[in-house]
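Take just one protein record:
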Amino acid sequence: MMEQVNAEGRLTIGGADAAALAAEYGTPLYLMDEDMIRENCRAFVGALADAYPGDGRVAYASKAFCCTHMVRILREEAMLADVASGGELFTALNGGLSPEGIIFHGNNKTEQELRYAIENGIRRIVANGAEELERISRIAEELERKASVSLRLSPSITIDAHSAVQTSKLDSKFGVPIETGAAFEAVKLALSLPGIVLEGVHCHLGSPVFALEPYARAADVMLAFMTKVRGELSHTLNELNLGGGFAVSYLPDQEVRSIPEYVEVISEAVQAAAKKYEYPLPALVIEPGRRIVAEAGLTVYKVGSVKEIPGVRTYVSVDGGLTDNPRYMLYGSKYEITLPEQASKEKTQTVTLAGRCCENELLGKDLLLQPVKPGDYLAVLCTGAYNYAMASHYNRVPKPPVVMIRGGKPFVAVRRETWEDVCRMDV
């Protein structure tokens, strides 16, 4: 996320002063720039419309950041929603998104979730394998419905990312492998089952993907498979969903491709593969999540203590941590930090950012920061994706609120939890 600093040298987001918002709403505090989110949605929708001559749709990956107001944004920006649980599906419907605008993912959907999806007639259920296909068929028959299905495949493509977020390699819980022949057998099964209409195939490389070439390879592998199905089973798969995973700049020195570049490469690769294999141009779906919201968000904390161990390190402890951003502990994810009231000043101090939980938990090591003292506000940039979404109640810490800024004006999109909220489900 590029720092936005006003004439007074203070950090802003969406034109609003980050420290002033922290003083008003308290800390920890998630701040989200709604105007930037909408700009990113429009950039994807516009780029796909310009680059792809066939039917193209953009589905936001809700797992990155999901709340009712985010769903309203998707609806108003002509986006589909990719959901991965019954809770995300309920949120999408509760936010007013049409069932036709929802794609349901997940490697182990429950009976309750599948029944809810089929009852509501959502656009597409992405099945993860043979067992799920049989489960979908049985439920659809019981409900006297037809379930529109895509099959998630593994094209065995490895990306340059943490192993935990590589989702298209052979050794993964996600998708049916193409190279072993299992994918072809799964298609045969789907075509034999009642209650199922097999519309297309899906793959997702993982995240974040900085390079363009893996998307081109995925398009070729998937179209080759679709051609095999058409030739040997006389069934034309009408939709190709190539997932998302588009990278963002978490640090100033990280260079990422523009939204149009990602979209153009995918579009050209799909067209080239369709021509190569003489396959009818399929409907194309892409599923950005992180790229829509990550850089549109930041988190503000208050510094509680500064512990200097001479010759070792300086710990700066804040009033959040693992419970509102577990990504450093999970993946070693790196972030840029700043003091929002001194954002224009030089960063001369190297610190380790520590959280408040009863663990040796950190938000980052060896980070540059302006001279800091207890009571200062501290901002972590580019936290719009997978922060609120992955927040927990460890140590029974309430979750922070989400304050959106639209046209320079803040409003609460998700309220701050209280201690009473944390105990609400106890019996």
